[in-house]
Design a protein that fits this description.
The complex is a heterodimer of chains A (300) and B (342).
Chain A (H helix, E strand, L loop, with lengths): L6 E3 L38 E13 L2 E13 L2 E5 L6 H7 L10 E9 L2 E2 L5 H7 E4 L10 H7 L15 H13 L3 H4 L12 H14 L4 E5 L7 H14 L4 E5 L3 H7 L2 E6 L2 E7 H6 L4 H7 L5
Parallel strand pairs in A: 4-9, 4-10, 7-8, 8-9
Antiparallel strand pairs in A: 2-3, 2-5, 5-6, 10-11
Chain B lengths: L2 E3 L23 H35 L22 H32 L3 H16 L2 H12 L21 H26 L2 H8 L5 H12 L1 H17 L2 H6 L13 H7 L5 H8 L8 H30 L3 H11 L7
Helix pairs in contact in B: 1-12, 2-5, 2-8, 2-11, 3-5, 4-5, 5-8, 6-7, 8-12, 11-12, 12-13
Classes of the chains: A alpha/beta (300), B mainly alpha (342).
């Protein structure tokens, strides 16, 4: 019997996406999202606007990476920013605690307010204690678990030498570790080097560190992209829990994650805010074609 | 639509034996010669190193008596009566410790400034070239310059003053200060390199918690590079211990430690003395002492100290590279009393 002949079509560029199915109102747009996996939860009792972004433009050198974005950030709900790589969502996030200013050549126009105050009028380090950030890669400092969390505290509790653990500091550290859901796992030895923890634990330690300063807003830049699914689930639960006490903004590439944790979703494309709305609305009933394409997995 | 037909995969069956490949020489002659030259140079170096160590070992062991390590040198033409070399050992320790103690904090500060601030950039470039010049300058040039500086009358409190008010300019203080200049580039380089290798996310994490750049350097970055700081300091110390020119010009030519005044420690530091290098020089056939047996014994001790320091450096760096956390932490412990790393 002759072997089968393999045929390869050569006149079609495999890197061009296949023609997508016509997406009219009747077809479900959220093919990438499994609605059944979203845990049922009651909306927060108290929603409070903490930050407001008003026609914000951001540039690195000559490139405008964020174009005319206006958004509210509210306590009591999680705001997820989604969009393809290079859509400006991480830059937008970093501008919320002025971390963009660390990069040379960053420029900005527009206004960001925190509790009604322009953040550029605030002292930058005070702002960064009120709007803290957790990064994509877990980045604990090479010191003990205790010192990692206490590091965020010292200036708040005065200039005394941190060497001696005051009861207030100890209390604040334990409290932050509890809020980050890490305390029970590390309580036995807080003097252990933080780098000995697992990746998921390290990321929760970073969340604890960010919470220790008792911020109004917590920024999360793809906090789970370097973690395994179990750690991811733990952190997602934590995020939903934390939204009651702190406004949360999360940047994620993972649409399912956005769907699972977010109350509001902002979809960005090439620096522009394409769509902003409640999670249900954006995922189930997007008004813009770009959003529909993105969440059905057509590009990005 | 055009279609390409691929050849069908070969049917399974017994593999056909392939004729053995011809042996080809892919090495041109020049490459081979170069390769063997490298080998020979390498082996030659090993032979020289082994010969030096063995020679010093044999000579050293045969002339070294333990009491030499605790006796002071004595003025005598007969080798068996010229005492030991406790004073030079003491001198070596003083210069090494004092010089490193001056160089390490300054070097760490400079390295941190170059890596973390470096602005204005013209100043950073100037500092860099200054460090390169110092690193490349022969130590005798530094010594000559130091002698002029420390002979100034306003620095008279650092050395001995003659009865007519002239400043002698030679003392442990003076020698250690110039030695610190010698060791400085090594500390700067290792600090700076280590800081530049630290990932930016460590800095960002600290800024994002509302800590200033200075706090970040002091509390996060410098503690993270303690092994490198330790390595740089030990390398600098090795350089200090091995230098002769600065000792000859700035510490004087006596073989014993000669204090000045009656204040216990300060008196010694203001005074002159000897180190193992100057002792070896003086007692060699080239020097005035001409007691080669003592020179061999002292050179052996000197070599052992330097080899021990080299081993320490290897140990510190290997701990860092292989992620041997315990060793890195040990290095940290060793420096943990140093205030600027805390």
């Amino acid at each position: 019997m002759p072997p089968p002949i393999r045929r390869i079509e050569i006149d079609r560029d495999p890197y061009i996406a296949p023609p997508r199915a016509a997406t009219n109102g009747a077809a479900p747009a959220n093919a990438a999202v499994d609605a059944r996996r979203r845990p049922a939860r009651a909306p927060s009792a108290r929603v409070l606007e903490r930050m407001r972004i008003e026609s914000l433009w951001l540039a690195y050198g000559e490139n405008w990476v964020v174009r005319d974005v206006s958004l509210p950030v509210r306590q009591g709900e999680v705001l997820a920013m989604i969009g393809a790589s290079g859509s400006g969502k991480t830059t937008l996030l970093r501008s919320l605690n002025r971390l963009t200013e660390v990069t040379a050549g960053a420029a900005r126009s527009g206004e960001i307010t925190l509790d009604g105050q322009d953040i550029h009028g605030l002292e930058v380090n005070e702002l960064r204690r009120r709007v803290t950030m957790v990064f994509q890669q877990p980045n604990p400092f090479p010191m003990s678990i205790f010192d990692n969390v206490a590091y965020a505290l010292v200036e708040r509790t005065g200039h005394g030498r941190r060497r001696r653990r005051s009861p207030e500091i100890e209390h604040a550290v334990v409290d932050a570790l509890r809020r980050a859901g890490l305390y029970d796992e590390v309580a036995a030895d807080l003097d252990r080097p933080a780098l000995r923890l697992s990746g998921g634990q390290q990321q929760r330690l970073c969340i604890a560190r960010a919470l220790a300063a008792d911020p109004e807003v917590l920024l999360l830049d793809e906090p789970c992209s370097a973690l395994d699914p179990i750690s991811t689930a733990t952190i997602e639960e934590l995020i939903v829990e934390l939204r009651e006490s702190v406004a949360i903004v999360i940047v994620t590439h993972n649409l399912q994650q956005a769907f699972r944790v977010a109350d509001h979703v902002a979809f960005m494309h090439l620096g522009e805010l394409v769509e902003y709305g409640s999670s249900e609305q954006v995922f189930d009933n997007p008004t813009k074609e770009r959003t529909r394409d993105y969440i059905s997995g057509a590009f990005g | 639509m055009s279609i390409v037909e691929l050849a069908p995969p070969a049917p399974p069956g017994p593999t056909i034996a392939r004729p053995p490949r011809e042996r080809t020489t892919s090495w041109p002659l020049a490459d081979r010669i170069g390769y063997w030259l490298c080998w020979m140079v390498g082996i030659g170096l090993c032979l020289i190193a082994t010969a030096v160590v063995l020679f010093m070992f044999v000579k050293g062991i045969s002339y070294l008596h333990l009491d030499m390590l605790v006796q002071s040198p004595a003025a005598s033409g007969i080798q068996s009566q010229s005492g030991g070399f406790w004073d030079p050992i003491e001198g070596t320790l003083i210069v090494a410790v004092l010089g490193t103690a001056i160089a390490a904090p300054l070097g760490v500060a400079l390295g941190a400034w170059l890596s973390e601030y470096g602005r204005p950039s013209w100043l950073a470039r100037m500092v860099e070239s200054a460090i390169e010049i110092i690193a490349g300058a022969p130590s005798v040039v530094l010594a000559l310059f130091g002698l002029i500086i420390f002979a100034q009358s306003f620095l008279g409190f650092l050395s001995q003053n003659a009865s007519n008010g002239a400043v002698y300019g030679r003392s442990f203080f003076a020698a250690s200060a110039v030695m610190a200049v010698l060791a400085l580039p090594l500390v700067v380089a290792s600090t700076r390199e280590a800081l530049e290798q630290l990932p930016d996310r460590l800095r960002e994490a600290s800024y994002a918690l509302g800590r200033t750049r200075a706090t970040t350097i002091r509390r996060v970055l410098l503690p993270a590079i303690r092994p490198s700081i330790a390595t740089g300091s030990v390398l600098g110390m090795g350089r200090i211990i091995g230098d002769t020119a600065i000792i000859r010009l700035l510490l004087g030519v006596s073989l014993t430690t000669q204090g000045v005044g009656h204040v216990p420690l300060i008196g010694v530091l203001r005074g002159t003395g000897a180190t193992l290098t100057s002792y070896v020089y003086e007692n060699s056939r080239a020097g005035e002492g001409d007691a080669p047996q003592k020179a061999y014994a002292a050179a052996f001790v000197l070599l052992m100290i330097v080899l021990a320091l080299n081993a320490l450096v290897t140990w510190l760096t290997s701990g860092r590279e292989r992620g041997g956390e315990r060793r890195a932490r040990l290095a940290g412990l060793r420096l943990s009393w140093v205030p600027w790393t805390r």
